[in-house]
Structure formats: C-alpha cells, structure tokens
Amino acid sequence: MRKAACIGFLALMVAGCETTAVHPDHAKQVPISDVHAFGKQRSLDDARIVFTQDAGAMSCFGAGMSIYLDGILAAETSQGRTVKLFHAPGPMQLSIKNNAMCAGGGQVGLLLDLRPGYSYQVRGYRDMWDKPSPMLSAPSPYRYTE
Predict the structure, then answer these.
(1) Which pTM value belongs to this model?
(2) Which domain holds residue 116?
(3) Count of CB atoms within 10 A of residue 21's CB?
C-alpha cells in the first residue's frame, strides 16, 4: 500500500509540472521593457507572430522563456503572458529557451514560412520534464488587419 501511495504521489508530481494553455485574448501582455526586437511592424507585408507562454507555477517554478527570431533575442515572457512580434515574410526560425536553470534549458526551434500580412499563433509550453517547446496553435494562420 505504501509503495502504491509513493508511486501515485510521484506520478502526480510529474504530471503537475506540465503547463496549461492560455488563450492570447486572456493572457497579460508582455511589458514593453521585455520586448527587445521585432516589436513594431515595419511594413504592411510583415507577418505577425503572437507568442503566448502557457501558465503553470509548478513548471520550472513559473520561470519565463526567451524568444528568438532568426537567432536574435526578440522578447522575454513569463507564465500566462503574450507578445506580438513582426517579421518580414519568408522562411524564419522561432526558437525558445527557459530563462531559469531548469531541466531542458536548451534552445528549441520551430521553422515557419511566413506569408505577407498573415498572423501566426505560437504556443510556448513545457512538457513534464520542463523542456520548452514551441508549437503553431489554433487558429490556422490568417490575414490580419490591425
């Protein structure tokens, strides 16, 4: 019985490290001081990337993530926050890494082929081992007007 309780507790702890998706409309904005590059639209053709970090205080003790576009630090987030970034159309790499010294602290990327004037939603989450992962999320890329 005691062994089963220990296994159950460990399973709960591991599952508790996973993060929970936050819709960009319900997330707080990243402060402007944490946006280092790509924060302003330079051309009507620029693609928009809406990056939202999941919530989950158990995951990596609530640490934020650094977002890189083509190897350049674009912004730093924290749990449950979102940021809008702009990039010229064409192929580009979005990479993220944990801001804290957590397990899985390496940089992980996602290749995107950006279309002119389209918006892309990207979710930054951590798996049960605290490894950061970016993923294109719903809705599918669409033409934006704002």
Answers:
(1) 0.83
(2) 2-143
(3) 15
